[in-house]
Design a protein that fits this description.
By secondary structure, the protein is an alpha/beta fold. The chain has helices spanning about 15-20, 25-30, 35-40, 65-70, 95-100, 105-110, 115-130, 130-145, 155-175, 190-200, 200-215, 235-245, 265-280, 310-320, 345-355, 385-405, 410-430, 440-450, 460-470; strands at about 80, 85, 225-230, 255-265, 285-295, 330-335, 365-370, 450-455, 480-485, 485-490, 495-505.
Length: about 500
């Protein structure tokens, strides 16, 4: 049994070390009254009306220091992955690629490629080298073996990667069809997005941790402005709005809160604004919502801090077009949850961050996927086989987590894997997917270069994240760790998501 901070173990165990700053009994007592944690439980249901939630209790913190060691390591060493015999650097696909190039029947090819992972890496290698017929054969072999997205976690993972690679083969070949069902990737439906928010902790962890950083940064402000660069359905904001209302000075009343929500779909943004306004009225909070439409393509060059392409230029153009205003008496928070990977390159990322710094925000919150040490040091992972290997390691852990925590045959899990994770995999192995795996070192380095300094997450923010897992995802596999100024959520020993907070540097 893990100790709870009261034992005399030497060396001190992981749970005991974490418990040192706050005695566990006091920690549990303080967490039970946390307004953000309580609100997050209330407003994270599967319905767009922000209702539902609930979950079982569990007194165990879980533990293990393997992920912490991984987080502190910046090496891209070749470590075996549980889902296959290949290594993180994408090795092992060459022999399979040679076998597939040689043609022959599929049984002979399969015999030459001992694992599904090898075949997928071979497909990526062949695709990168331009041998589209052989790449197609490799994808078809995997699809034939894992012909349905309803098998076990390994089969489902293989299916989605084979499908994503097949789609890319067809796109490169200029075909007007795909080898499997479906067309161009579409945004996930609201039902699938909210189901993902319900059955997996990733979004709720990111939202809760970012919200706590924002709540602390705007404490005492009479006018609060939140610029959310990826508002989607707005599920992040009801818990924060409720926490702000509950902390209001009785003599002054609650502050005025303005959310500028960005997204690519106007109708979704309008519905999000209507729901948030209705919720704010129900808690008597002065509230305004402004939609900020971001286009996926830029039709003409528009300069932002010295650059002229991509999402940063689009954001600036959209802000000007919608009359985005920053008032001097407002305290500004900029929320970048699952947004920065949309920026195409280092120059665009730097320009965007300089644009944000010019707004003088009190806090900038960043949440992004982690490559678990396999992303390497470059700005992109341009080598496709290596990128597929990194992405497989990441999503293998995600699929294993869902396998362990969601009942077999769950329709919600199927919808999430097809509409959310499957489409993420398509994007991750697509032409621009290399930028998905920059990791906290790259985001942090870019933020510092743009004039930001890390704003340490409070012990309470980290404790709330652990409480979220304890109450709603009581599996021993999920871990929360604090390292390098960020808070990480992982499965087993692999970090999957990081949340960090930043503020303009005083220098």
């Amino acid at each position: 049994m893990s100790c709870q901070g009261s034992c005399n173990c030497k060396p001190r165990c992981w749970t005991c070390t974490l418990a040192l700053p706050i005695k566990p009994a006091l920690l549990r007592c303080s967490l039970s009254s946390s307004p953000l944690a309580a609100a997050a439980a209330t407003f994270s249901g599967s319905s767009p009306s922000f209702s539902g939630g609930g979950g079982g209790d569990d007194d165990g913190y879980g533990g293990g220091d393997g992920m912490l060691r991984s987080l502190h390591s910046s090496s891209s060493s070749d470590t075996d992955n549980n889902s296959g015999g290949c290594k993180n650097n994408g090795g092992g696909g060459g022999e399979a690629a040679a076998a597939v190039e040689g043609g022959g029947d599929q049984r002979a090819v399969a015999a030459a490629a001992p694992s599904t992972r090898d075949l997928l890496l071979a497909c990526a290698d062949l695709l990168q080298r331009g041998d589209l017929p052989a790449a197609r054969r490799a994808a078809e072999i995997v699809l034939a073996a894992a012909a349905s997205p309803r098998g076990d976690a390994a089969d489902r993972l293989a299916y989605h990667f084979a499908r994503a690679l097949a789609l890319r083969v067809d796109a490169k070949a200029g075909h007007g069809h795909v080898v499997v069902g479906g067309g161009a990737a579409r945004p996930a439906s609201s039902g699938a997005y909210l189901a993902f928010n319900q059955i997996a902790p990733f979004l709720r962890f990111a939202h809760l941790t970012a919200n706590q950083a924002i709540l602390e940064a705007v404490d005492g402000a009479r006018r609060v402005h939140i610029l959310d660069l990826d508002a989607v359905h707005g599920v992040q904001w009801p818990p924060l709005l409720q926490a702000i209302a509950e902390r209001a000075d009785p003599a002054l009343g609650p502050p005025e809160v303005r959310v500028t929500g960005a997204g690519a779909d106007r109708d979704t943004l309008l519905r999000t604004g209507n729901r948030l306004r209705a919720f704010a009225r129900s808690i008597h909070l002065p509230f305004h919502f402004t939609p900020l439409l971001l286009s996926c393509a830029t039709t003409a060059p528009h300069h932002v801090a010295g650059t002229s392409t991509g999402a940063a230029a689009t954001a600036s153009t959209a802000a000007a077009a919608t009359g985005l205003e920053f008032h001097p008496d407002e305290t500004l928070a900029v929320n970048c949850v699952m947004f920065l990977h949309n920026l195409a390159g280092h120059d665009e990322l730097a320009a965007f961050l300089k644009w944000v710094k010019a707004m003088s925000p009190a806090v900038v919150t960043i949440a992004e996927r982690e490559a678990g040490g396999g992303g390497g040091g470059g700005d992109h992972i341009d080598d496709l086989p290596r990128r597929v290997g990194v992405a497989m390691d990441h999503y293998s852990a995600v699929f294993e987590a869902l396998e362990a925590t969601v009942p077999p045959g769950s329709r919600e899990r199927l919808a999430v894997e097809q509409e959310v994770l499957g489409r993420e995999i398509e994007a991750a192995v697509g032409p621009s997917g290399g930028r998905w795996w920059r990791g906290i070192e790259r985001w942090g380095g870019a933020a510092r270069a743009a004039g930001f300094a890390a704003r340490p997450l409070s012990a309470f923010a980290v404790s709330q994240a652990r409480l979220l897992l304890r109450l709603h995802y009581p599996s021993e596999g999920y871990l929360v760790q604090e390292a390098r100024g960020a808070c990480f959520l992982g499965w087993q020993t692999r970090p999957l998501l990081s949340v960090s907070a930043w503020q303009p540097s005083s220098s």
